[in-house]
What we know:
The chain has 796 residues and is mostly helical. The chain has 32 helices and four strands. A hairpin with a 2-residue loop joins strand 2 and strand 3. Helix 19 runs antiparallel to helix 20. The termini are far apart. The N terminus is likely disordered.
Amino acid sequence: MEQEVQNTSSNLLVRKLGTILSIFVFLLPIFFVPVSGVGLYVAKITFLATGLVAIFAIFLSSVLSTGMIELPKAKYLIPIGVFALVALLSSVFSGSINSSLAGSVFDLGTSGSIIMLVFLLFMTVLAVKSVGTVSKIITAFIYSTVALALYTLLGAFGYSLIPESLASKMPFFLAGGAVDTAIIFGSAVILALCAINMSDVSKKMRYVLYALTAFSLIFIGATNFTPVIIILGLISLVFFVYILSWSVGKPSSETTSSEDNNQGLNRKISLSSLIVLIASIILLLGGSGISDFFSKTLRVQTTEIRPNFQTTMDLSLLSWKQNFALGVGPNRFSEFWDMHKPVEINQTQFWGTEFYSGSGFVPTIAITTGLLGLLSLLAFIVMYLLTGVKAIFAQVYAGRSRYLSTASFLVSVYFWIMLFLYSPSIVVMALAFIFTGLFTATLVPQGIMSLWKINIFSNPKTNFLSVLSIVILLIVSVAGGYFVWERSAAAVIFEKGIINYQMTGDIQSAKQSIAKSVTMVPSDIYWRGLTEISLNDLGRVLGNINAPEQVTDEVRTQAQTLISDSVASAKAAVAVDDDNFQNWFVLARVYEVLGANGIGGSLEEARNAYNKAGTLSPSNPSVPLALSRLDALEGNIEGAKANIVKALELKNNYTDAYFTLAQLQVAQDDIPSAIKSVEAATLVEPNNTGLYFQLGLLKYNQKDYLGAASALEKAVTLIPDYANAKYFLGLAYYKLNRKDDSLKQFEEIKVTNPENTEVSLIVENIKAGKDVFAGIQAPLDEEPEKRAELPIKEEN
């Protein structure tokens, strides 16, 4: 009787595991939190951690109930486990264990996120005990993709129906980005092909699968991400041949497909896979025409910028020279990229973009975890592929098991190929590990693989230790979950502080929020954010001082506090990660601001910090440009010009450098000769927008507004969205009394830079017939051509 009760309890726990995993898989692609400040990644990683803790807790409960731990004898689980350990070891020796292990919120690529994903694979294998559970989970995923499709359609055609208060908090793509969504829809097509051709689905479900396949192909066409199209086409071709080769369909009396009886097998043609293959070919050959039509219809904007495969491999060789076995450390790609970034990148608008991975997840692993990490991951993939091919051809008549095994294997292989070709979102990564676990779970019922069985209660003398170990594991899992939850909370508080500052300008509230997040998680990102807020506050205080008598004791105390806070937070960022270029650059900026306001010794400290930043990012043109500003502050104009030349050698279309050079020329009262030299340079380089910008700025300073407008018009013609050129062109038009043309320029800038409050103010002033700078407040002024920085921050 006691045994029956125990078995019933055990079966209930097993069913709960399957149900929870099904719910988890259904929610993972579509889960988000419609609350301001809760980013999509934070929501996903928190959901992933919570799901893992819940699944592990129920699994441990089932082990306590039965005393048994059962694990399929899949040899490929060994190298994937080794891979997780190598990632952890690599973090330990990375030089910045906190950033490498967890980052801000267990960022994708940290060893912590890798361990979570590998743990998810093992929990899927341990939790799924039957093909019925596999079927339930796959069905849940199909319904999840249907929900994802409906959400995408809502965003494309029904966005105006959603209340604005809710719409502003809803991400356009729930799975990450457009490409991540396309990857998931590609997996949905594969599952639909398997279900239609290999299982007995209802007529209603068949229509759902057809509709899902059609929409998925349209969305994939809209994103025009070539790897998805090619791999989907190849898998549909393989599946077409597979169906033609094996008896996996309905009896011949129930099918209209072409048949060829051979040795008792009913061979048939999979029309659906043939259609997918043809659609893939059309999308490939159709080019941008088809893609543009679909993308405009679905409002899909896809911009994927990442290092190419060759560059990633070159970086791999460099990283192996640094640490052959363990690489530079998980989540350290960005720092390594800054150190070895090709100079050619500087000529593009993405020169200042921070890259956190290479051409794909797997190639990036070669850099971050070294040869040991790469070999262990490749060993897993090769062993997994060999096992999978053997399994799907093992038996001719396997019915439902064959369908589930083939479907989970093809989808998992598809995801792993995507991980090699692309660095996807946490959702796609998790699905790759889940479907790998599902395929593994299907092998035991088919008799292809046996189980390792461990009875933890086999020896009465060790029962106490077994129970104690399970309790400890449960506590550790909850503690790990809390570690993620705490970091997620800190990220939300930080984001809310930044958003509140951008919307209201309330510096004190923002500082309190960021300070709280720093207390919870001392991330260098949060410290840098606190530094920027303190600098803005300091700029406000100093900007309000127009006469010596305004420097009261209160103002002096306030300024000293802000100076102290800025320096302390910038130094704290460096202390967290002293190999990060951004941390040193922010510290240097703090000292530069102090030096510009006459604080003794600050310029020397700024130079030291900028030089350190330069060693961490030697091809970054912003460093010599910053040094030129220090030279100018010290009165060394020739040194300043020399550093500007260095910046332009690294990036010959560097707008900030031309802006600073023009200011130096104006300060030297050498505008006429400067204009002549720049005009001569434009004859040699007629497509150099930076030269036209510099020429326009020089003529604007000389109050030659007609000449300024002419030069700036050429810059805007070459680059239509050149925001700073449009800004000064708008001012030149205003000076020429061309108010309508001026308004048009600023309205166009506002569309691409909605967060710029100055541009919004200018638009309102022109419409109201006021002076263009009416109501401008410190630290801004009415002479943007003389400011230390450009009015609008641009990538190029």
